[in-house]
Write a structure and sequence with these properties.
about 290 residues; alpha+beta; paralog of FGE (formylglycine-generating enzyme); 4-stranded antiparallel beta sheet; 4-stranded mixed beta sheet; 12 strands; about 15% strand
């Protein structure tokens, strides 16, 4: 009898998950992954999160370029707001590599499938509106979706699912797997080269420390489907680029390539006043009419 009850409740949960699942048109369904309804722990509060789809990867240079080319003629005002802020490379970073990145990162075909950065929060919103229009044109008149930036609760839910204590999308607090390979793109500083300063801040002791990014192919960013997908087949929710949130127009979650391991947790949020080489985005899709 006990096993029959377990089977019954398992089937009930499965059926509710299927009914909960929104329907996206085929051109978009492949890249948007379903995250079922559930709970999310945000800053100590347990919040209810409705089901949604999330893009499996951060929006790429190629995808954003297609968007800009689409609106350049039909909406010049939006184009000006959405265009990439290349000057932020040299404004925010000092490196011998910044010059070339500023010139070619967003336009060279070698970086087509790498995450777009230096896009304002408004630019990311405009991309979502454009994509929403594209998806809705593929749907029946009785159906409609909303495309937008994720809330912090949704971002955490997409990374951890029902595992409310997860700090990282891979399920433990280690930054490497059993083979010693890194599980995300972040600033790797060995503990031996770090100490605690005033106000408990982290201080890097060895300023000449050399970090090997070349062998991993991630001098700045990792390509869109790098490392390992999580339980929902979503990539790079930790590190690589921080991602704009809808909670506020200056918040980005998940940390970036320039952050330490603690700052690329699912719960990690930083404030950015403008576009940044450390910030990109990815949209989520919700069903608003069916």
């Amino acid at each position: 009898m006990k096993y029959l009850l377990l089977i019954f409740f398992s089937l009930l949960l499965l059926s509710s998950s299927v009914l909960d699942s929104p329907k996206l048109p085929k051109p978009f369904k492949k890249q948007f992954k379903f995250v079922p309804s559930g709970l999310s722990v945000v800053d100590g509060d347990t919040l209810s999160v409705q089901a949604f789809y999330m893009l499996e990867h951060e929006v790429t240079n190629g995808e954003y370029k297609a968007f800009l080319e689409s609106i350049r003629q039909e909406n010049p005002e939006a184009f000006e707001e959405a265009k990439v802020q290349n000057e932020e490379w040299s404004k925010q970073l000092s490196s011998n590599f910044v010059g070339p990145m500023e010139e070619i990162y967003h336009i060279h075909e070698s970086y087509t499938h790498y995450p777009v950065v230096n896009v304002t929060h408004k630019g990311a919103q405009l991309y979502c509106e454009w994509l929403e229009d594209k998806i809705n044109k593929e749907l029946l008149k009785s159906q409609k979706v909303e495309v937008r930036l994720p809330k912090k609760a949704e971002f955490i839910r997409a990374g951890a699912g029902n595992n409310y204590n997860w700090q990282y999308a891979w399920g433990n607090n280690k930054m490497t797997n059993s083979e010693g390979r890194y599980l995300c793109n972040f600033t790797r500083i060995p503990y031996a080269s770090m100490s605690r300063g005033e106000n408990d801040e982290i201080v890097v002791k060895d300023i000449n420390l050399k970090i090997d990014y070349i062998s991993e192919g991630t001098m700045f960013f990792a390509i869109k489907n790098s490392y390992y997908p999580n339980i929902y087949d979503i990539f790079n929710l930790n590190g690589n680029v921080a991602e704009w949130l809808s909670d506020s127009d200056d918040l980005a979650a998940g940390g970036s390539w320039r952050d330490f391991g603690y700052d690329v947790r699912l719960q990690s949020v930083k404030t950015y006043e403008t576009a940044s080489p450390m910030v990109g985005f990815r949209p989520v899709v919700s069903i608003v009419k069916d």
